[in-house]
Amino acid sequence: MQIIHSVQAMQATASMLREQSASIGCIPTMGALHDGHASLITASSQENTATVVSIFVNPTQFGPHEDYQRYPRTFDADVALAERHGATHVFAPSADDMYPKGFETTINVGRLSTILEGERRPGHFDGVATVVAKLFQAMLPHRAYFGQKDFQQTLVIKRMVADLNIPVQVKIQPTVREASGLAMSSRNRYLSAEERTIAASIYQALEAGKAIVERGSRVRTEIEQAMHGQLADFDVDYAVAATAEALSTPEQFSPDEQIVLLIAARLGTTRLIDNTTI
Ligand code: AMP
Fold first, then answer.
1. pLDDT, averaged across the chain
2. Which of 56, 66, 88, 90 has the fewest CB atoms within 10 Å around its CB?
3. Does residue 40's CB lie within 6 angstroms of at least one atom of ligand 1?
């Protein structure tokens, strides 16, 4: 497996792979890799001749009081995990290479980036969209793999790819969970043993909301109340039911509409997000 540190070298390698008619799958990550990332790497290595995992803690998607400085950085273990799951390349650029002096351009994906996560984390999705577009320009993938864990992010990226005619097939993989139901996340490393046990209630809340829908209700407040009922231990940013297609929040969902339940909640100093589609 090859490790590449510069944008220029990555582009040269990806161009060469394309000339050899290799198909390239890419997995953009911020490192601290776990089994959720592994599932994306495995999916890519089954569908492509080359699989490039990018590891880049992107400063522009963190707010000023967020965890950019303390975000876990575990490069050697990440490289080993990527290789074990079939990656052929790791792309790990520096922030200076990604954002050289004079950098000015930002991609803004409109309404989708201003609601829910976007409302609580202003500028977050501009940072995500811009870095993903830049990573695509470096890795030149045919396919890109993202996790449903970050549901709103998948919508933002699919919207950007469609709107800008980016010739990349976006593939969304299911959320990988601990046995307790807790969604795997690099940020779970911040949790104490006790908090980790409590954190599984987020999954219980999603299941409680889902149960209301499965019992026949499509009234948004009823679904949301059921979720809130499980979240007493948390400082809840949001626990909402929305349409999976556009994240709109009607009072009542129509029978044929796919619903997504989305939660963002803080436990101590750790902010966790999760979702499920129905
Ligand atoms: P991150 O390193 O947190 O930016 O995540 C990189 C990619 O891995 C994103 O597409 C995430 O949605 C995905 N991912 C993170 N956690 C999980 C998980 N538990 N299951 C599936 N995919 C995940």
1. 97
2. 66
3. yes
150 lines ligand 1 (CB under 6 A): yes
pTM above 0.90, yes or no: yes
5 an active-site residue?
A: no
Topology annotation, domain 186-271: Pantoate--beta-alanine Ligase; Chain: A,domain 2 (3.30.1300)
Domain boundaries, the chain: 2-173, 186-271
Question: With 0-12 CB in 10 A as exposed, 13-18 as middle and 19+ as buried, what is 122?
Answer: exposed
Q: Give the architecture-level CATH label for domain 2-173.
A: 3-Layer(aba) Sandwich (3.40)
Which mutation among 148, 150, 206 tests ligand 1's pocket best, with the greatest number of atoms within 8 A of CB?
Answer: 150
Q: How far is CA 244 from CA 97, 124, 151, 164, 173, in A?
A: 36, 20, 9, 22, 15
215 pLDDT higher than 90: yes
Q: What is the 3-state secondary structure (H, E, C) of 105-139?
A: CCCCCHHHHCCCHHHHCCCHHHHHHHHHHHHHHHH
Cα–Cα dist 261/277, whole Å: 6
**What pLDDT does 22 receive?**
87
